[in-house]
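User: quick one, sequence for these C-alpha cells?
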C-alpha cells in the first residue's frame, strides 16, 4: 500500500507556516507555441484540464516558509512542493523556470532549500526540451551546494524518473514518507517481472539511498530538527576544558590540562574544534599491552552510543553510502552539543568490523560537514576493516581510501577520540592526523597482537609479549606522538 498522496499545498501545510509564494518568473518574449515545443496534439488542453482540476498553473509551487517547532525553534527556508495532480508532477520548461528562480532566491537570501517531491519525471509532451530541464535543476543544485546552503528532500508518493535523480537523490539529506513509491523507473516502464517492493521508500532506505523513512505525523519535527542542525552556524564560543592525563613516559603521571587550548590552535575556519569528550569508563591506565587489549575488548566498556548520548542532544542520523549499502556499525549524523548548543557532526564506530558502506557513509558525513562548516567528532572503535570476500567485492580498499581522503581534505576541524579498539588502517581512516585523543580503556595498533604473532610464527603463549612489543597502550601512543593526550573521566558531581 502506497503513501497518502498530498496536493502540493497540503504538503506545504503539513510542514510549514507562513508560506509566501514566490513570483512566477516571466516566460520567454515570444508566446509559447500551440501545444508546446513539439506541437503535441492536445497538450494545451491537457494543461488546461490539469489547471482546472488542481488550481495550479504548473507542476510545482515555490515559495518561502517558516518551518520549526517551539522546542527546536524556527528556520526560514525556500520550499518547493510538487503537484502530482498536474500532469503527474512532470518537469517541463516552465517547471524548470520556477525551480531555477527558487534556487536563485535561496542563494540570494542565504536560505536552505526543502523540496517536497512527487513526480513521474520529465514531461514527454515537451520531449527533449523537457528532459534538459534536469540539467538546469542539477546546475542550480550544484550552485546552491557551492554556496554552502543545505538541501533537504522529502520523497512523497510517487518520486520517480528525473525528479528522483535530481531534486531527490541529489539532496544532502533525504527523508521519505512510508510506502512512497521511489525509484528511477516508474511503475509503467519497469520489467514485467520486477519486484514492486524494490521501488519503495523502505527499499531505498535499506539500499543506502535514503536517510530515514518518516511517518507523516513526525515529518514537521524531523524537518525542524534537520534545519536547526544544518542551517545555524556553529558558534565560536570558548569550549570548556577537558581533563587529560599527561603520559610522556612509561610511568604515567596525572595532571589536569586544558585540551581546548591545544585543539583550538588547529582551527582553520570559523568553527571551533570539538573538545575531546571525557572518558566514560572508570578504568585506569593499563600496565601492559595485553591489559590494554583486554580493557578495550571488555563488554563493560562504554561504547559509541554512550558517548553520543552524553555529548549531544537532538541527534539526527544520516544513513547509507548512496552506493547501495549501509553499515549499522558506523553511526553518522549531526547533533546539538549539550554544553553550548553548537551543532556537531559525528561519525562513530561501534566496535564491529567496519564495512565498505560504513567508510563511504562516514566520508559523505565529513564532506557535508566540511561544506557547511560544522565541526566533526569521530569516535574510533573497531577491530579493523571487514576483510571477508563480500567486503572485497564491495570495494573495501577504495572505500577506506575515500575516507582517508575526505578527512585529509577537510577544512572544518575534526576531533577524534579513540574509545576502544584501534585496529590498523580500518580505524586510522577515521582519525584526525593532528587531533586524536584516547581514553584509558583503548589501544591503537598496526595489527592485532594475535595476528602479529601468527605472522611471526610465534606460539600462542607469546601473544601477550607481542602486545607489549607493539607499544599499543594509550600512554605509549602519546610517547610515540600518535595521540595528543589521554582524556580523564569527569570528576564526581559534588
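Assistant:
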Amino acid at each position: 500500500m502506497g503513501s497518502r498522496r498530498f496536493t502540493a499545498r497540503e504538503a506545504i501545510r503539513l510542514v510549514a507556516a507562513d508560506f509566501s509564494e514566490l513570483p512566477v518568473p516571466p516566460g520567454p518574449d515570444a508566446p509559447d507555441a500551440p501545444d508546446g515545443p513539439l506541437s503535441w496534439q492536445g497538450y494545451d488542453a491537457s494543461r488546461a484540464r490539469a489547471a482546472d482540476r488542481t488550481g495550479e498553473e504548473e507542476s510545482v509551487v515555490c515559495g518561502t516558509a517558516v518551518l520549526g517547532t517551539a522546542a527546536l525553534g524556527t528556520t526560514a527556508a525556500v520550499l518547493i512542493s510538487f503537484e502530482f495532480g498536474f500532469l503527474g508532477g512532470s518537469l517541463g520548461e516552465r517547471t524548470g523556470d520556477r525551480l531555477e528562480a527558487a534556487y536563485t532566491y535561496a542563494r540570494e537570501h542565504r536560505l536552505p532549500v526543502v523540496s517536497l517531491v512527487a513526480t513521474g519525471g520529465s514531461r514527454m509532451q515537451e520531449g527533449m526540451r523537457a528532459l534538459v530541464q534536469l540539467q538546469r535543476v542539477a546546475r542550480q543544485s550544484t550552485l546552491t551546494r557551492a554556496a554552502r546552503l543545505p538541501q533537504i528532500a522529502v520523497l512523497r508518493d510517487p518520486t520517480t524518473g528525473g525528479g528522483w535523480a535530481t531534486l531527490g537523490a541529489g539532496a544532502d539529506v533525504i527523508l521519505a514518507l512510508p510506502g512512497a513509491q521511489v525509484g528511477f523507473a516508474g511503475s509503467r516502464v519497469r520489467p514485467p517481472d520486477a519486484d514492486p517492493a524494490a521501488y519503495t521508500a523502505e527499499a531505498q532506505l535499506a539500499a543506502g539511498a535514503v536517510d530515514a523513512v518518516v511517518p507523516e505525523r513526525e515529518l514537521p519535527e524531523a524537518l525542524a530538527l534537520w534545519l536547526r542542525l544544518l542551517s545555524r552556524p556553529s558558534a565560536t564560543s570558548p569550549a570548556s576544558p577537558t581533563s587529560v592525563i599527561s603520559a610522556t613516559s612509561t610511568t604515567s603521571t596525572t595532571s589536569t590540562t586544558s585540551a581546548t587550548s591545544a585543539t583550538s590552535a588547529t582551527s582553520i575556519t570559523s568553527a571551533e574544534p570539538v573538545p575531546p569528550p571525557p572518558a566514560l569508563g572508570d578504568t585506569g591506565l593499563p600496565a601492559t599491552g595485553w591489559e590494554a587489549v583486554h580493557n578495550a575488548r571488555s563488554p563493560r566498556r562504554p561504547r559509541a552510543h554512550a558517548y553520543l548520548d552524553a555529548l549531544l542532544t537532538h541527534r539526527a542520523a544520516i544513513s547509507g553510502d548512496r552506493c547501495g549499502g549501509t553499515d549499522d556499525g558506523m553511526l553518522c549524523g549531526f547533533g546539538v552539543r549539550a554544553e553550548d548548543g553548537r551543532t556537531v557532526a559525528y561519525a562513530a564506530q561501534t566496535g564491529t568490523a567496519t564495512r565498505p558502506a560504513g567508510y563511504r557513509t562516514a566520508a559523505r558525513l565529513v564532506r557535508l560537514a566540511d561544506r557547511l562548516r560544522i565541526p566533526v567528532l569521530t569516535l574510533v572503535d573497531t577491530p579493523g576493516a571487514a576483510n571477508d570476500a563480500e567486503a572485497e567485492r564491495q570495494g573495501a580498499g577504495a572505500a577506506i581510501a575515500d575516507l582517508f581522503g575526505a578527512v585529509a581534505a577537510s577544512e572544518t576541524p575534526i576531533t577524534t577520540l579513540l574509545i576502544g579498539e584501534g585496529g590498523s588502517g580500518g580505524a586510522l581512516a577515521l582519525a584526525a592526523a593532528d587531533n586524536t585523543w584516547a581514553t584509558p580503556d583503548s589501544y591503537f595498533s598496526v595489527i592485532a597482537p594475535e595476528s602479529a604473532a601468527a605472522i611471526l610464527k610465534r606460539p600462542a603463549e607469546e601473544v601477550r609479549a607481542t602486545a607489549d612489543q607493539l607499544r599499543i597502550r594509550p600512554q605509549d601512543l602519546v610517547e610515540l606522538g600518535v595521540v595528543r593526550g589521554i582524556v580523564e573521566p569527569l570528576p564526581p558531581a559534588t
